[in-house]
Amino acid sequence: MKKLVLVLFSTILLTACSNTSSNNTENKSSSSKSSITTSKRSKTATPKPNLNKKYPGFKLATIPDNFQGTWYQTDIYSTQARKFIITKHTIMDSVVYQKTDPNLNLSHRSEKDNKTYAGNATMVSFEDKNGSQWLRARGFLDTVDIIYITGTFKGHRCLYLAYSSGDIHSAIFKDRKAALKYRKYDFSQVTNPSN
To answer: What separation in angstroms does the CA of 59 have from each of 97, 101, 156?
Structure first.
């Protein structure tokens, strides 16, 4: 009698475990299907930059042609190059503006400025220095510029990247293969972006 109870109990337990296992498999496949659907939706749901948004003291800027296009960036640890897109009025998906009011001073500590200048927007300025064109970009309330400097590196068209001081720290290339080839290069050694 004890053996019969033990066999029945074991059978019930094994049956319950196998049902749970098959339910988990079904749940996994349905959840992965839903996550695939979700990721497809999120890619198409990316909002387009609003080129009509107005900010006091700024106007919509037009980026010069030699900065525009698809560039490729990478880093020392990457095995793939990432696209970096600059259009007529955007850097990646950030709309660019030029300052029109020279007396306008913005503070990231100001609650009013944080409300007024919130959004995906970048303040830019353009200069010619040492035979290269410079595009200075930063968020309205940021304190450090990223500088894109036109140039060539070993025969490849590139934009050198520098911080506010102008010291070059990396480069993005028009050619994906060049970006990967020079991903470990120390660009701080570059002193003349035109060569």
So the answer is: 5, 10, 33
